[in-house]
Write a structure and sequence with these properties.
The chain is about 20% helix and about 30% strand. The protein contains 11 helices and 30 strands. The strands form 7 sheets. A 7-stranded mixed beta sheet has the order 16-15-17-18-23-22-21, covered by helices on one side. Strands 5-4-3-6-7-29 form a 6-stranded mixed beta sheet, with helices on both faces. Helix 1 packs antiparallel against helix 3 and helix 3 runs antiparallel to helix 11.
Amino acid sequence: MSFETPFGLIGLLSVPLIILLYVLKQKREKVTVSSLALWSKVIDDMQVNTPWQKLRKNLLMFLQIVAAILIVLVLAGFSLKLNTGEALSVIIVIDNSLSMASTDIKPTRLAAAKQDAIEYVENLPGNSRVTVVTIGGEPDVLIYATTSKNEVRKSIESISQSSGYVDAEKAGELVLSLKDQEKDARIVLFSDTFFSFGNEKVKFSEYKKQNDNIAVTGLTYTKTGNGITAMSIIRNQGEKSAEITVSLYGDDEFIDSKWVTIPGNQTKTIWWNKIPDNVRTLRVSVETEDILPDDNNGYEVVVTEKDVKILLVTNGNIFLEKALSLIEGVEVARTSPDETVYEGYDLYVFDGFIPGKLPKDGNMVIFSPTPNSLFSVGDWMDNPLVSPSDHPVFRYLDKLSFAVGRTRIIGKPEWAEVIMEYSGNPIIMEGVLDNKRILIFGFNLFETDLPLRAEFPILISNIVNEYAPLRSTVVDRIFAGDAVRFRLKPDTVKAYVHTPDGRRLAIEPAVLSEPFTDTGKPGIYTLEQVSSNGSVSTFFDVNLPDEWVMEKASYDRSDAAVEYKATDIAFQKQAVKFSLPVIAFVILILLFEWWYYANRNYV
């Protein structure tokens, strides 16, 4: 037994009120009668109706009390729980992705889903095994096959709103792996979108009343002779056309506003011209309210750092010099190994040479090292096989393969890690020495076919992006919840991140320290680097992913979505309400009471 609105039980106060009305003395008027034969009958009647006397049986009063109690039960949302007593195995899947923050269901879709999930668990037989999974962002198992309803309730209550999207492929793999361990498990999905899990049947509780949402899905810029030109992309996720106000802010100061119309299920590109060139951060904002305010803003940092200064030390490697000079924002100087002092550059590239005294103010890239005091260098190894690597310098080069004629046999020092090796010999390695990053290639570029491949300029650009600390703060565009890899200056002593909500978080100044992961809130972040020469602050932006596109793409590539079609079973709470039958019964009671009152015999 349960009540949806327990406050309705206050109406039970009407029961003693009805009894009180029947107990109170009835007041009668004096009348003249023709006979006293019935006097004794009147006396008896007056005694019975004297206040606070023993209450006589009264059918009308009984019917009114029953009717009042039934009406109160309807107002309180009375229902009976159905419990078969049979133990169940249940996998509860709760979607806590970005769209579940929508407010078309109060207070939010996620809050309503969590409440229903808790109620569903409470209605299960006591010895049921329950697993709770979240699928917003990275799918996660919160609790596994427990019979403790209290622990399940706590795990569901602990689910927080994420800013990610549902990766249907990953979610399917996780749920199906759990299903394999619990063959008889029932899958129950609480989401605003139906997701299939292989060919398994799914009980689905949907949380969506409308799609009237406008989202900022992109913001970028370019520098022109007239300042900065920005481009923003706005998507209307609803079925109907929407008229909205969109504003642009620079360094949190208002710049411009536009009134635009976006057809249903379409995007619109909005251009912003003549933005002052001294602006360092941009924000575009949808000012019109909708059901999901979280995705109404987009952020972009305007890169204003000075050009990266690179010193190339070589006897004439034109391939390296050309590739470096093609990178925008890079100032390349070339010198021969005859120099003895190296300073004033952000990145040093040593080709076939290692100086006896290392630079103190920049990172280093070394090709074909010669014998030195940093690590051992031996003879040559012929025709080593190159294997794939997920190191950042090979980003966007997943299919890169190249031939190496020979490479140096080098020893790995304690301060370095191997990136690529062959037969136990490092081909490429990197490390940190005196707070400076060093990348080492054991081979000579002239003895490979790398410079002849179209991917070579991308490789060199990746190296500059990764090892030149002033080029930018982070390597990639960051979405909420992503880990950030910082490229700190070699002389950084302390480093802090200032978050959009006003926090100042200390991070390790070591260049290969753990990634920064506190990026759950979208907005503009500030990286502060403190050295003996003062402090330098740079910005990076964190945006929300385009959930609509990402979920569609992940679902399209999901094998479960392609090979099978799951059965969508409407979710029902395990309780039955009797509102309509009770109201019908009350009406019958009142009709009978009226008939009885109209036809009763006073004799």
